[in-house]
Amino acid sequence: MIVSYAELAGTLERALAALGLEPDRAPRCAQLIADSTRDGVPSHGLNLFPRVASMIRRGAIDPRARAIRVAGRGALERWDGRRGVGALNAFDAMQAAIAGARASGIACVALGNTNHWMRGGSYGWQAADAGAIALCWTNTLPNLPPWGAASPRIGNNPLVVAVPRARGHVVLDMAMSQFSYGALASYRARGERLPVAGGFDRDGRLTDDPAAIEASRRPLPIGFWKGSGLAIVLDIIAAALAGGRATHEIGADPEQETGLSQVFIAIDPASLEGAAIDGVADAVVASVQARYPGERTLAARRQHLQQGIEVDDEAWTIARRCASA
Amino acid sequence: MIVSYAELAGTLERALAALGLEPDRAPRCAQLIADSTRDGVPSHGLNLFPRVASMIRRGAIDPRARAIRVAGRGALERWDGRRGVGALNAFDAMQAAIAGARASGIACVALGNTNHWMRGGSYGWQAADAGAIALCWTNTLPNLPPWGAASPRIGNNPLVVAVPRARGHVVLDMAMSQFSYGALASYRARGERLPVAGGFDRDGRLTDDPAAIEASRRPLPIGFWKGSGLAIVLDIIAAALAGGRATHEIGADPEQETGLSQVFIAIDPASLEGAAIDGVADAVVASVQARYPGERTLAARRQHLQQGIEVDDEAWTIARRCASA
What we know:
Two copies of one chain form a homodimer. In chain A, strands 2-3-4-10-5-6-7 form a seven-stranded mixed beta sheet, with helices on both faces. In chain A, strands 1-11 form a two-stranded antiparallel ribbon. Chain A folds into three domains: about 1-65 and about 310-325, Malate/L-lactate/L-sulpholactate dehydrogenase, four-helix barrel (Hypothetical Oxidoreductase Yiak, Chain: A, domain 1), CATH 1.10.1530.10; about 65-175 and about 225-295, 2-Layer Sandwich (Ribosomal Protein S8, Chain: A, domain 1), CATH 3.30.1370; about 180-220, 2-Layer Sandwich (Wheat Germ Agglutinin (Isolectin 2), domain 1), CATH 3.30.60. The first copy, chain A, is an alpha+beta fold. In chain A, strand 6 and strand 7 (about 170-175) form a beta hairpin. Chain A has eleven helices and eleven strands. In chain A, helix 1 packs antiparallel against helix 2 (about 25-40), helix 4 packs parallel to helix 5 and helix 6 packs across helix 7. At the A-B interface, strand 2, strand 3, helix 4, strand 4 and strand 6 of A face strand 2, strand 3, helix 4, strand 4 and strand 6 of B.
């Protein structure tokens, strides 16, 4: 099924309103979900909507809760997400970090007690659209074995780093696993091997067979010991600054994945006279002569705005049913 | 040759003084180099000393220059490293970031026009010793092919993330290459294969043969496309905020590697009442049941303080000759 962006966003807005999001909040949440889908990341857009709906219905997500500032000094703040809608909490936290960066050059909001932020890249694009540099990350439920262990005890803790650029922002959005379970399933469904080793099989051998990794539950951290270490240290920082949960305190069931901790750092390059970030970014992108982070996002966005967005039938049916309830 | 920490640091101090570092600066620089060697990273400690000495003698490093603040707003500052000693510039920049974080919760110093910072982890340990969380990174000369290209057009841009912890700081110090050229040479000299694929051979096939990667000059970024993207975006941020050079503007000869750009972000967790970082870090480290970042550093430190430090003969000879000049 192919739908237009307007149809997707409109349907999601009605669905979210029906789920209890207030009139000033449903449009923003719908936009975040529709944008991720439009940008070629349906796994963290529309396809997550059914889980959000189910978690709202079960009370795991409070559709009316708004994140509030609970502590802080200067440019560092701690917010309580009050188990509200993860994407809206993250958006609000990044807006506050951007405002703080305008005042102080750099600012940080640590957000605890929140829910899945859906596509992390959204908050990088948000900052870059506002002219800010951003670093943000979230912890997750334990879904990745640390290097040297066989069972999932760390999160894949996505890290987002964003730079504003007039000709197309540079936005890196990377989980600490080499391939997500969603990606493994896609390769398997297409009958393909992974382009590089993505995990261990049940016998502890590195493999590029997606089904073998799904069976062992041993996907690889990026860079082996390196990504494992980065996931660990980002988890500690998020939980400590947010006063929230670390990965080991989060349940292993995705439907119960709540109480996450996140960090949003924004830097305002305009604070520094002569910080010619646009020229620097253009020159680096040109020098690399290879794909830069964010390039594929913009290509997908253009294509989907012109040709419509192919949506997952099941998720779309659930969203439409919810919208007309 | 095995030397004590005191002998190593003392010799380096005399050598650096002989090279022109001022009396209030040589001890700190000697300590940074000796600490890295003591901590099991001689490649970025004593073994880099001959290059530093040679660059000072050729005028590429100014041993008396001190980094100065040239712009800023609030908690964001830009410093000019004035082509001074890279390790001292980095130390001073991190000290300023820590002081800024004490005042504002979070602070950032972007340092341009500087030189190789030697072991990046030093500045993570420095921050953690002061009770601060730190994120810092540097760009480098082009030494790594971006994903999708065969020639080195990005830097391996080490990223350091540090968390203070009474029972041993958690400090990640990771370059964006899976293996450094130094590591490749060590594996080759021992006649070993790499534990995982570390690059491409001349025919473009992934290989765990260190000599084949040295020959092709195609080491792998960590996480393939992911580490490649992270190196690119960190380079842009460092060069733009520092008003300095990006990787593509830095010469490919290590002896000419100067004019680097670096970012130092410090966060003071004590700014937030109840930020129980020690307990959070202890619990995460315990939960992982695998090695945490910094663990091996502390083990090497203990061993070397007890048993002395095995030093590279050539580097040690150069340092001693320099010290007695």
